[in-house]
């Protein structure tokens, strides 16, 4: 399994774990963009899943280090910009993955634990194939199809309504007994035989798709719906979003309702009541997958009863009541033609294998990540050999690769008897291939990093890209090519090196003899649109602005939490500047520090990163220059009007008997409350169970209301 560290997780120091999580977050978000937005992944599903597994293992061991931009809290990638955007009424989340039978047993056990479900009480799950296609949400109003949107980043997708209407399997109208509003969700895919026939036709024009999934995604994202209509796209319905009335009581029954409405649903969906039944169905699907006319990459299990799904709720990026059980990878042999080194935003040097093209499961693959220099040497987490006889990987080798349903494989091993006589051990560079700065590897780290953080274009450009990215300031017209152009331009009037430079560009270039509209690749119309897009972001939502700054550990989720708490950027900045961090374990820090760490989901690591950013002089100078051009708009307080705890800060302490702690927090947040981990002057309510200790005493000392679990249910009107 690829790792971001040469040490096993239980041997990592706090600093090593923190560095590993930072690198994993950056790498995974890049792969998400390539897969979901660009339909051009560069690593295999198995490789990608291994990165997420490593991330989850470190987070489980070091929960206080969970990053704001953690992959465990994000879904998909931002919409590409080719189509208009659609805000999903209910998020389209991803699923957690299981890779072994034991993972499935753990999932079922976790569901029972969360619900406090007795071991002898049956618990029903649905099991169905996991279609390898493009997620889609179809919105019907008054039983007419009005909008079709891709998943995008889970909150916002692309409007592909015109193209979806070309798929004959998708009804334009629903029966008269359907609700006034219903969002039917499922997967757009392409059958394998249709894919091969399409690629044959496209080969005549010098074009082709890598696999059926990419073919379906590329066909659906055509600007001309007539092109989409010429492509043989199919659809399976299996889920739903917003509805104006309940659709049923179980997952299985609602899917059968979709069938009655005219949607194709998968015939291999069954109900199971035990782990053994679930796994039996999984292995049956695995055995049959080659005979299926479409690609699948696993099975999906969901709690069948919708009332229990509601109680289980969601994590940041996935429901607690469902999991995807992935299949094993496919394998092939090819030649390693070369090794390239890529430099990421954090300065990490990542080796990429260039392969002799080979077909694996109908897909031509040419590249693979080699993870790190130890992996090339044949060393594992503990320095142990990871291949037979501890052999390394060399250019010219015949390598065994595996693919797990995606374009790029993982190199598993080397066919030693076919190694060329002149093959030499690969020497990993000790200088950055981009800026020629020293590339160093800290003790205990598997990653070698460029030390030229302030001068390395690869890192600086990535920071600007992050600032203007879809989920940050979202400035249309500043894509990768444009950022590279402005960053490297010789004329200072056209150069962008800091975020503030973006907003002074129009003024600077207007006084220059070199006009942007006279440069190849631009033009008067595109320049006018670019400046309009920049001006449109001179006022931006507080949480987006904070995320765009790229503060270590401050991703979208944490940025939103901070924004909801402080409401204004100025207030957050002042508290952060006033905060005094603890200097010892017995030192609690000052009240400003306690306010930050008391926010639910904000631990000491995130708080320290926030404080460090705002007290650093260079950051303050750059921020002041940016704030002279951009105004963060205050956050609107989030409140559920009908909830008696909306807008209040609640702390749960002690043992809860009718619900788990996670379930309690999820319930409170659904009702509009803020859940804090510690008691402070800003706490409104403490819910205390048996065994409550210091938090209950603190609440008493501060005169804060304390209630028990039963009173909590009475208060929120959800008695049990």
Polypeptide structure, described:
This protein has 720 residues and is an alpha+beta fold. Among the domains are: 85-326, D-amino Acid Aminotransferase, Chain A, domain 1, CATH 3.30.470.30; 475-536, no CATH class; 541-633, DNA polymerase, domain 1, CATH 1.10.150; 649-716, BRCT domain (Rossmann fold), CATH 3.40.50.10190. 35% of the residues lie in helices and 18% in strands. The protein contains 24 helices and 24 strands. The strands form 7 sheets. It has a 5-stranded mixed sheet with strand order 2-11-10-3-9. Strands 14-13-12-15-16 form a 5-stranded antiparallel sheet, with helices on one face. Strands 5-4-7-8 form a 4-stranded antiparallel sheet. Strand 23 (685-688), helix 23 and strand 24 (705-707) form a beta-alpha-beta unit. Helix 1 runs antiparallel to helix 2 (45-61), helix 12 crosses helix 13 and helix 16 crosses helix 17 (556-566). It is globular. It starts with 13 loop residues before the first helix and ends with a helix. Residues 76-81 have low confidence and may be disordered.
């Amino acid at each position: 399994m690829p790792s971001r560290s040469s040490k096993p997780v239980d041997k990592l120091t706090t600093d090593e774990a923190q560095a590993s999580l930072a690198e994993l977050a950056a790498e995974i978000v890049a792969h998400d963009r390539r897969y979901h937005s660009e339909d051009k992944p560069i690593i295999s599903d198995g490789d990608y899943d291994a990165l997420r597994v490593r991330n989850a293992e470190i987070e489980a061991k070091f929960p206080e280090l969970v990053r704001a931009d953690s992959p465990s809290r994000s879904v998909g990638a931002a919409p590409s910009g080719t189509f208009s955007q659609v805000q999903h009424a209910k998020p389209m989340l991803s699923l957690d993955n299981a890779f072994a039978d034991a993972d499935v047993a753990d999932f079922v056990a976790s569901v029972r634990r969360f619900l406090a479900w007795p071991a002898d009480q049956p618990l029903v799950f649905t099991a169905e194939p996991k279609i390898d296609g493009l997620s889609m949400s179809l919105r019907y109003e008054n039983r007419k199809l009005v909008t079709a949107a891709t998943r995008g980043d889970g909150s916002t997708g692309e409007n592909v309504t015109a193209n979806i209407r070309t798929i004959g399997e998708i009804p334009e109208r629903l029966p008269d007994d359907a609700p006034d509003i219903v969002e039917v969700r499922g997967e757009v895919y392409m059958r394998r035989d249709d894919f091969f026939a399409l690629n044959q036709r496209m080969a005549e024009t010098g074009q082709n798709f890598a696999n059926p999934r990419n073919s379906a995604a590329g066909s659906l994202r055509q600007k001309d719906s007539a092109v989409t209509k010429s492509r043989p796209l199919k659809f399976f319905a299996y889920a739903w979003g917003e509805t104006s009335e309940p659709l049923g009581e179980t997952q299985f029954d609602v899917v059968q309702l979709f069938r009655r409405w005219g949607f194709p649903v998968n015939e291999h969906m069954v109900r199971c009541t035990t782990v053994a039944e679930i796994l039996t169905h999984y292995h049956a699907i695995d055995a049959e997958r080659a005979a299926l006319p479409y690609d699948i990459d696993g099975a999906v299990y969901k709690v069948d009863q919708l009332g229990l799904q509601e109680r289980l709720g969601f994590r940041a990026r996935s429901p607690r009541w469902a999991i995807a059980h992935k299949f094993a990878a496919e394998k092939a042999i090819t030649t390693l033609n070369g090794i390239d080194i890529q430099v990421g935003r954090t300065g990490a040097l990542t080796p990429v294998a260039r392969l002799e093209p080979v077909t694996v499961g109908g897909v031509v693959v040419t590249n693979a990540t080699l993870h790190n220099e130890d992996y090339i040497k044949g060393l594992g987490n503990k320095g142990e050999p990871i291949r037979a006889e501890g052999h390394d990987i060399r250019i010219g080798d015949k390598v065994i690769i595996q693919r797990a349903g995606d374009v790029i494989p993982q190199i598993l091993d080397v066919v030693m008897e076919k190694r060329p006589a002149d093959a030499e051990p690969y020497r990993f560079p000790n200088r950055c291939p981009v800026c020629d700065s020293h590339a160093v590897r800290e003790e205990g780290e598997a990653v070698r990093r460029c030390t030229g953080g302030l001068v390395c274009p690869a890192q600086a450009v990535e920071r600007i890209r992050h600032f203007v990215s879809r989920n940050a300031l979202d400035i249309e017209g500043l894509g990768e090519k444009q950022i590279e152009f402005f960053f490297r331009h010789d004329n200072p009037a056209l150069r962008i090196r800091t975020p503030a430079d973006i907003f002074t560009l129009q003024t600077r270039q207007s006084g220059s003899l070199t006009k942007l509209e006279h440069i190849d690749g631009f033009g008067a119309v595109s320049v006018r649109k670019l400046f309009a897009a920049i001006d449109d972001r001179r006022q931006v939502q507080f949480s987006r602005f904070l995320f765009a700054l790229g503060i270590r550990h401050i991703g979208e989720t944490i940025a939103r939490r901070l924004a909801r708490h402080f409401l204004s950027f100025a207030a957050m900045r002042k508290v952060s500047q006033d905060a005094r961090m603890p200097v010892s374990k017995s030192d609690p820090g000052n009240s400003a520090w306690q306010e930050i760490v008391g926010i639910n989901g904000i631990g000491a690591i995130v708080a320290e990163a926030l404080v460090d950013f705002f007290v650093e002089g260079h950051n303050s100078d750059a921020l002041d220059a940016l704030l002279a051009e951009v105004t963060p708009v205050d956050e609107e307080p989030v409140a559920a009007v009908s909830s008696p705890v909306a807008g209040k800060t609640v702390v749960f302490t002690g043992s809860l008997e009718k619900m788990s702690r996670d379930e309690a927090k999820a319930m409170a947040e659904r009702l509009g409350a803020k859940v804090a981990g510690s008691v402070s002057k800003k706490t409104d309510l403490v819910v205390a169970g048996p065994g409550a200790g210091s938090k209950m005493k603190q609440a008493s000392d501060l005169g804060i209301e304390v209630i028990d679990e039963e009173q909590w249910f009475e208060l929120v009107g959800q008695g049990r």
